[in-house]
Amino acid sequence: MICLFCNVWDKRNGLNGVLETFPDLITSQEINNTMVEFVKNKIVAQVNDPRVAKALLPSDNHLIMTRRPCISDDYYQTYNRDNVTLVNIIDDPIQCITKDGIN
After folding, report:
1. Taking residues 6-13, what's their average pLDDT?
2. Are 35 and 64 contacting, i.e. CB atoms less than 8 angstroms apart?
């Protein structure tokens, strides 16, 4: 099944092609689980820092398409740039917003 996802991803416009090919993605737990693993592998392959990649991985607490997915071809590579830092507000919640910034 993973190979099929790869073929569809490469030939049919990424995630959009996968959604068109597998309309039962959110109704079949088996297909969704396979898609979760596929997406996790894609993210890990594109993000250089393993800690950042781990923070970006889809949660196992919900089906993959029940939250807005990042569809852009270069979204995950953005986190490899020197001027981009992931702020994980789950691990480091916002305490307050001040006139000088966010604490």
Report:
1. 70
2. yes
